[in-house]
Amino acid sequence: MRVLTYLAMALLASATTAHAGGGCASGYDPVDVVHHIFNAADQDQDGTLTQLEYEDAGLQVYGVTFEQSDLDADGVTSIEEYILLYEYHHPVDGETEV
Ligand SMILES: [Ca+2]
Ligand SMILES: [Ca+2]
Fold this sequence. Notes:
Elements: H1 2-17, H2 30-41, E1 48-49, H3 51-56, H4 66-69, E2 77-78, H5 79-89
Antiparallel strand pairs: 1-2
Helix pairs in contact: 1-2, 2-5
Bound molecules: calcium ion (2 copies).
């Protein structure tokens, strides 16, 4: 849980600051951070998150339930779905939600 909390904070920080150009000048590539969070939650490392993995990792604390994250409703959340979700919730205009 601690690791995920740290990654979440890094993710939020990079979402507000590291959106200029390629993003390799400093800090994280936001998509890279999403990958880290996803992989940390993916207990069996099969590249998808089941509802159990999703909720066990506490990903719903970011305000998105497992059902919402499973965009094609096939019962698992893939990394592609999770990145899409991230981009949806972190638009490039830098608007910060509370
Ligand atoms: Ca898995
Ligand atoms: Ca899915």
